[in-house]
Amino acid sequence: SLTEKTVDTRLKHICELLELEIPHYNWVGFYFKNGDKNELKLGPYVGEPTDHTIIPFGKGICGQVAVSNKNFVVPDVAAQDNYIACSITVKAEIVIPIFVNGENIGQIDIDSNTPDPFTKDDERFLEFVCEKVATIL
Ligand code: SME
Predict the structure, then answer these.
(1) Domains of the chain listed by start with CATH number
(2) Which residues line ligand 1 (CB under 6 A)?
């Protein structure tokens, strides 16, 4: 049953569902604060493997969200400063922080191969997903 699965298995299933059901979600993954270090560590994901399994706070879109505690929508990655490219097929990115007891403990990161695909509906939906994820961590 669901309750017997590990947290990582559940997170992986969320990634798989999002990538499968939403056509403009092409890479879906979780990054989490790496212990006491000022860096993020890659968790469960679906899509192309990435070299960026550790991201220092402040670096790239993910690292910026780790310090800003805000959603970050990038409609065009080619026009974005402080962006870490993982794949040449990626056109856009959205990162939404995950809060546990008010603390930013990680994030969901989604890449799209479609230019400028993310709307306020994506933000609201992914905030909802992150709130649900926070309850199983
Ligand atoms: N593009 C991200 C790095 C992570 S990959 O998208 C999987 C960034 O700029 O932080």
Answers:
(1) 2-134 (3.30.450.40)
(2) 27, 29, 50, 52, 55, 60-63, 83-84, 86, 93, 109, 111
Q: Enter the tokens of residue 58.
A: 């402040």
Over residues 60-107, the pLDDT tens digits come to: 999 999 999 999 999 999 999 999 998 999 999 999 999 999 999 999
Query: Nearest-5° angle of CA 36, CA 43, CA 6?
Result: 100
Instruction: Kindly indicate whether the ipTM for this predicted assembly is greater than 0.85, answering yes or no.
Output: yes
The ligand 1 atom nearest the CA atom of 59: 10
Distance CA 116, CA 65 (A): 19
Nearest CA to ligand 1 atom 6: 86
CA atoms of 96 and 41, how far apart (whole Å): 15
- pLDDT tens sequence across 100-129: 999 999 999 999 999 999 999 999 999 999
Q: Determine the Cα–Cα distance for residues 130 and 40; give it in Å rounded to an integer.
A: 16
Do 110 and 73 meet the contact criterion of CB atoms below 8 Å apart? no
